[in-house]
Design a protein that fits this description.
Number of helices: 2
Oligomer: single chain
Radius of gyration: 17 Å
Structural class: alpha+beta
Helix content: 10-25%
Strand content: 35-45%
Shape: globular
Amino acid sequence: MKALSLWPALLFGYPCKTATAPSVLGVFFIVSCATANERESIQLNNQLSACIAVNDMQTSIENGIPVLSFDAQIIKSIAECGCKSALGSYSVMAKMAEYQSYIIGGKVAFTKSEHKYWPLSAEQGLIDKRKLEIVLSCAQPD
């Protein structure tokens, strides 16, 4: 249980006090703390909100890579939001007091409503103890 209690602090940089002995109550506190920290640490700037709804955002670590998963619901074609194709773009920025630092991003397809998995960074150390902003927008033409 002690290793699990470090997870919120490692992923989001916020210490959480949890039980160190295995218990149902301890698991509840870990889950509650992790959920609260996720909401405080990740801000979504959805510039396509009139066309794409983002629901049920979750974070996890998959094979050592921090990942954002969510449900993308197509409201209408992103062409109706000014995009030149069905390709959108996402960028992950680390927000510091005086500046933002680009972490990772890329083109993403929005052709149907589905569950999405996007990397938040190439490695965990790049986003430790940082607030993140995820920008969802139209992809630039090639």
